[in-house]
Amino acid sequence: MKNPLQFIQEVKQEAFKVTWPTSKETLQGTLMVVAMAIVASIFFLLLDQVLKFLLEILLKVSI
Predict the structure, then answer these.
(1) Which of 26, 34, 42, 43 is found 20 to 30 A from 18 (Cα to Cα)?
(2) What is the predicted pLDDT for the residue at 11?
(3) What's the CA gap between 41 and 17, in Å, rounded?
């Protein structure tokens, strides 16, 4: 195991190498996630309605 002080220095050096996203990139990523969540929710809503319709038809035919 390394010296704890040396470990902390190495962590600090690595932290300075990190390139953090700009506020524009963060906003763009956030908007993309929100848009994809909306698209996915609409898709599953439509799929649910179609399956519900088909199930109702199937149940009416079998009675």
Answers:
(1) 34
(2) 92
(3) 38
